[in-house]
Amino acid sequence: MKPYIKSKLLVLALASLAREGNVVHFSGFARKMNHIFYFCASEASAKVPFNAYFEFMYGFKSLLTWFSRIIFSENQVLRLNKIKNKFFLCKFYNELLDLHKIKNIMLVPRQITASLRTILPKFPILLVTGPRQSGKTTLLRDAFPDYRYVNMELIDNRNFATEDPRGFLRMYDKNVIIDEAQRVPELFSWLQAKTDEDRQMGQYILSGSQNFLLMAKTSQSLAGRVGIFKLLPLSHTELKTANLMPAEVETALFIGGYPSLFDRDFTPPQYFPSYIETYLERDVRALTNVQDLSLFRKFLRLCAGRVGQIMNYVALANDCGISQITVKNWLSILEASYILFQLPPYFENFNKRLVKSSKLYFYDTGLLCYLLNLHTATTLQNYYARGSIFENMVIVEMLKNRFNTNHPASFYFWQDSNAIEVDLVVSESAQVNLFEIKSSFTIKSDFWKGLTAFRKDAPAHISGSDNVVYAGDETQPRTIGTFWSWRDIPKL
């Protein structure tokens, strides 16, 4: 049998497994196509590592996405002429056989999965938000393979949901993942009525990256009915589990945690320009009144230059040439879409004058480094803001540890009028734990200065552990507290 004929069998089988337009259930396809794949591979004497099931499945995703764009037309009708095209079939066949050549393509187990499965039976609706391309869709389709999938980025699905919400919820009545749900905010009130009537737990799973619209509508329509989770880019815990953790701290800072940087041959300077443009065009322009995207881009880079610093709205407005009101509006956009966040000050029950403005941090240090025009990891060795970027990484990784395990905590910093500070104050489980963060490779006694000052001035009932996180390799418990290596951040 000629290769293109065997590929035709493969293509027809794939088409029969298509769901909701051009979206394919990859795990179901991989299982059902196992024998066909082996047949094609053996015919070409190719050695495909199918024993790495999840590795194959995740690598297959990009190929199937390309494939489905080709064979499905705008109205989701299969293009039979494409299936008959020998050149196209041979190309698909060869691309399929080349999957075994792809390095580092794998589905990284996400730490948050256990928490999602635990909470799902307790709420009618589960909501997973997070930055664009943080892995939400891949996570949900892998964790809940029995759920049907509807992508609201597709205009036909959006029109169906907005023009005929009753019909939409009649067709997708239970066990459904609604991706990019913020694109159809009108649907939320209908979901409220539907879930109230059916009283079924785990009925719907919503995901979305444009949190500023999604959360507002959710709070209005779905309060008390939804379990909310945040999925950030890959954590150090997840990277270690997948044997993908960078060996050097500068590399970890430079790359960050976006999944595409680990499952494809992207470098950060190759990946982040398109990421930023997609964010500006699809999120900022579509959902806000920002007219000058170049000015917004400048504002984003100015924010990167202020990482780890006390927020000064007047200075930021003057540097960007915009009003303070615009600064606050644009910051709210960046925060709600998981680009950056503000760390509030801790000043509870202190009798002395303290700083009461927030600090600025980014959700991913890879993106931060790109915005700072850093093009190689080695540049970070002597970079003037290395300490602030390292501080950013530690704080975000500790946030991920809590988001992924569904352990709520409140994060702050502390600084008095003499600029003596504690980089991170974590209030959790009736304790107030302190963390000083230093990018030094060497332990120094003066690292404890801020921690000591906090304990001295704090009321007696405020107690907890004292810690220093540094860039060295060895964790050392001391009488006064613990020096934590950056490699042990997953334990914090």
Notes on the structure:
The chain has 492 residues and is an alpha/beta fold. It has 22 helices and 15 strands. It has helices spanning 3-16, 26-32, 34-43, 53-71, 80-84, 86-97, 113-119, 136-143, 155-163, 165-171, 187-198, 211-221, 236-241, 249-255, 260-263, 268-287, 293-304, 313-320, 324-336, 365-371, 386-405, 449-457, and strands at 18-19, 23-24, 125-129, 148-151, 176-179, 204-208, 226-230, 340-343, 359-362, 410-415, 421-428, 431-437, 466-470, 476-477, 482-485. The strands form 4 sheets. It has a 6-stranded mixed sheet. It has a 5-stranded parallel sheet with strand order 4-5-6-3-7, with helices on both faces. It has a two-stranded antiparallel sheet with strand order 1-2. A hairpin with a 2-residue loop joins strand 11 (421-428) and strand 12 (431-437). The longest helix has 20 residues, at 268-287. The radius of gyration is 25 Å and the shape is globular. Mean pLDDT is 81; it is low at 1-9, 11-62, 71-84 and 96-106.
Identify low-pLDDT runs. Answer: 1-9, 11-62, 71-84, 96-106
Main sheet: strands, sense, barrel: 6 strands, mixed
Radius of gyration: 25 Å
The end-to-end span amounts to 58 Å
Please state roughly what percent of the residues sit in beta strands, choosing from under 5%, 5-15%, 15-25%, 25-35%, 35-45% or over 45%.
5-15%
Helix content: 40-55%
> What is the averaged pLDDT score?
81
Write down the oligomeric state.
Answer: single chain
Biggest sheet strand order reads 10-11-12-13-15-14
**CA-based shape:** globular
Q: Please give the count of helices.
A: 22
Structural class: alpha/beta
Q: Count of DSSP E strands?
A: 15
